Amino acid sequence: MDVLSRIVGIILPVFLIIAAGYGYARFRGEQVTEDMAGLSRVNVELLSPALLFSALASQDFDLFANLPLISAGLLISLGSGLLAWPIARLFDYDPRTFVPPMIYNNCGNMGVPLAVLAFGASALSEAIAMFVASTLVYFTIGVWIIESSRKGPRLSMRRTLANPMIMSVLLGILFAAFRIPLPTMLLQAMRMLGEASIPVMLIALGVRMVDVSFAHWRIGLIGAIVCPLSGLAAAWGIDQWLALNEMQRGQMYLFASLPPAVFSFMISTAYKQEPDKVAAIVMLGNLAAILFVPLGLWIGIK
């Protein structure tokens, strides 16, 4: 019962903020959804990169101590994609639509605040480590999958590296590896920007929920199940051979149980890769998180 009450105490604040975003959007109408598009862009291009970079560049972040979790995040993202590919073929879904959302879970919007609530403020660096791993896989292999067999110009490596998320990750890793110090005032300013990204992410997710369409509920339901189960299956395999301490193990299973990222819908829209189907996967996946996130937390903290 203690474990159950702890899990409820962890996930309830996150879902309450999501519900607040949903309720506000329902009350204010379509204008909020339109306004949120601009705020989401600010989040993706400024706030989230600031969160990633400031966490990595902080003197508190130990890159080498977090290498096991970064490795776990990479393997879970890749493993989820490998497990999802034959399922896409089985149900005759386009892998370019189905597989990338399985690779990139909601480790930013939902994973970071959940990790802090579950394991304390000191767990932020571990959560960021897994966020970094998932971001690297998605913006390389995930985007490559979306672009496979696509007509017209493709995303160049130069444009990939110029993405603010990738730039912040690579620069952050460089600063962390060589312990390059930043002026305290600059780092504090970037931390404040980064901390703003978490509630904005959750509110944006709630606003997105208003547009849930059940026209593609079948692919949405299958994606909602496959994403966390494939992640948990990959995590279980990793758990058999990768030496992790108690907090790292809990973080790994929490990360593995997360639903598809809202950001994958934005990318599918940019590439015109069946965004309506990806939206169904993302929305139903985040609704199903009410079931799967407690499962991941239970496995990780029992």
Helix-strand blueprint:
Layout: H1 2-28, H2 30-57, H3 67-90, H4 95-103, H5 107-119, H6 124-147, H7 157-162, H8 164-178, H9 184-209, H10 217-239, H11 246-256, H12 262-271, H13 275-301
Question: What report would you give on this structure?
Answer:
The protein has 302 residues and is mostly helical. The chain has one domain (2-301): Na+/H+ antiporter like fold (Up-down Bundle). It has helices at residues 2-28, 30-57, 67-90, 95-103, 107-119, 124-147, 157-162, 164-178, 184-209, 217-239, 246-256, 262-271, 275-301. The longest helix is centred in the N-terminal third of the chain and has 28 residues, at 30-57. The model has no long low-confidence stretch (mean pLDDT 86).
Number of helices: 13
What is the class in the CATH system? Mainly Alpha
Got a strand count?
Answer: 0
What series of H and E elements makes up the topology?
Answer: HHHHHHHHHHHHH
Which geometry do the CA atoms define?
A: globular
So, CATH architecture?
Up-down Bundle
Helix percent reads over 70%
Radius of gyration: 18 Å
Average pLDDT taken over every residue: 86
How would you characterize the largest beta sheet?
Answer: none
CATH fold descriptor: Na+/H+ antiporter like fold
State which percent range the strand residues make up: under 5%
Strand pairing plus helix content: what structural class?
mainly alpha
Distance between the termini: 11 Å
Structurally, how many domains make up the residues?
1
Low-confidence stretches: none
